[in-house]
Amino acid sequence: MTSILPLPCCGKPNRREVSLTASICPSPETPAARRWIAHLDMDAFFASVELLKYPELRGEAVVIGGGRLQQPVFQPDGTRQFARMRDYVGRGVVTTSTYAARAFGVFSAMGIMKAAKLAPDAILLPADFEAYREYSARFKQAVANLAPVIQNVGIDEIYIDLTEHGEDAPAFAARLKAAVFEATGLSCSIGLAPNKLLAKICSDLEKPDGLTILHPQDIATRVWPLPAKKINGIGPKATAKLEAMGIVTIGELAQADVAMLHTQFGDVYTGWLHQAALGIDDRPVQTSRETKSVSRETTFERDLQVVRDRAVLSEKLESLCTRVAGDLDKHALAGRTVGIKLRFEDFSTVTRDITLPSATADAAAILRATRDCLRRVPFEKKIRLLGVRISTLCDPSQASRQAPVQAELFPAL
Fold it and tell me: I want to staple 410 with a disulfide (CB 3.0 to 4.6 A). Which of 77, 220, 246, 313 is the partner?
């Protein structure tokens, strides 16, 4: 693989450099050069909100993801006693963690029992989604008061079009950071770049409390050395395929032979990969977007038999429901129609769904609904894939919260 060298927008580059330079360094007169798109990402959002409630935990390794049993307990001397990861028993999933906990390798979507082995002395707190939604509304309103062109992409992140501010866009981005802190007491990181794809990458480069500004001519020196998986849209499977081809960095992807990529990824995805590696993204900041459904699924390493592997299937089902509930909370949504998807060893696929009396964003309620769906499936073959989906989405104010499910999740035959 040819090594990647910075490509200046001046001098006498070779033919290959001319092609790439033309793509990533547009003329100052073109509209693309004048775009300023910001991606604002709250720093360790859920954990940071918890630290506002429990300031004595600042600087500590803290994990969010416990249940009611992990609520802090007031002591007679007025101090709080916090649950520790080493004492946790169950199949819960980490919602998020502080940067101190991440230093031990504890990240979101990791099983809490696995995380406890990495950081047994870390504090474990239950999630408080009502508080997270409240602070989400606060920071978004603070931004909206100053910049009206906003795309809401999650409970803790937004895109902002700052093109109208021209050369003053960096200073305005700093002003937005200050406004968010004043409204919430929380820090955020902003990536400011010519488009959404690059802004998303940049917002993660100087966390926490960062402001990263990227000009088109900086792509080769600042973006290309990064791992290809830093591009939003390149997941674990695509990353593994690229690495098998000897492509690790974004720069290597930018210089990769398109025909070679096509053999692995097909027309559409290959075209997108090539443009993304060059930093090309013309998507506008959309002020509204309707999400139709939220789903998660997993393909097993081996086909599972319902009776023999019921414990494994139950654990996987609970994990999927927890992740779906987390996605709903992240996007400030709830839903009424819960469905399951099963693909069997012969690749036949069945789906079942049920509509609840009221909307929910609660993992326990979603679990109960999936059990009702599973009872309507004949299990005569081994299971290859399991998925959970929720639709008929609405505002979470219409949602109901329920007590956790402790019983066996996968139905007995």
Answer: 313
